[in-house]
Amino acid sequence: MSVATDADVIVLGAGIVGAACAWRLAERGLRVQVLEREAVPAAGSTGRSAAGVRHQFSEEANILLSMASIAEYRTMPESDYRPTGYLFLVPQAQWDAHERAAALQRMHGIPVRTLSPAEAAGLVPATTEGLRGATFCPIDGVVDPHGICMTYAARARALGASFAFSCEAVGIGHDGSRWQVEGRSGRFRAPLLVNAAGAWAGGVAALAGLDLPVGPARRMVWTSAPLPDGFGMALPCPLTVDLGSGFWFRSERDRLIFGLANPADTGFSEGIDWEWLEPTWTAGSERFEWFAELAVDRRACWWGYYENTPDHNPVLGRRPGAEGWIDACGFSGHGVQHAAAVGRLIAQEALGEPSFIDIEALRIGRFSAPGATGGGERLVV
Question: For the FAD dependent oxidoreductase domain, which residue ranges apply (predicted)?
Answer without folding.
Answer: 8-348
